[in-house]
Specification:
Elements lengths: L2 E8 L27 H12 L3 E8 L3 E9 L6
Antiparallel strand pairs: 1-3, 2-3
Length: about 80
């Protein structure tokens, strides 16, 4: 195996189908008091600096959302 895979489940915030295309856009939030930077910043760091991937694997009402992070074992930024 040449990569690390992490799955993170957030039980509080399931996304509606119409929201999925926007969740990684800067400024998009589902909260009344939110800046919408968390997922977009996380994706940018993982993809641009670590050459990995951050994806939404599933989202369900009363279950939450599961994200997957993939990082290459051999990548090192020099």
């Amino acid at each position: 195996m040449d990569k690390y895979e992490y799955k993170i489940r957030i039980n509080l915030f399931p996304y509606e189908m119409f929201e999925i295309k926007n969740i990684f856009k800067p400024g998009y939030t589902t909260k009344k008091r939110g800046w919408g930077l968390g997922l977009s910043l996380s994706k940018r760091i993982i993809e641009n600096y670590h050459k990995g991937k951050l994806t939404l694997k599933e989202t369900k009402i009363n279950f939450g959302s599961t994200f997957e992070i993939e990082l290459n074992k051999s990548y090192s930024k020099v």
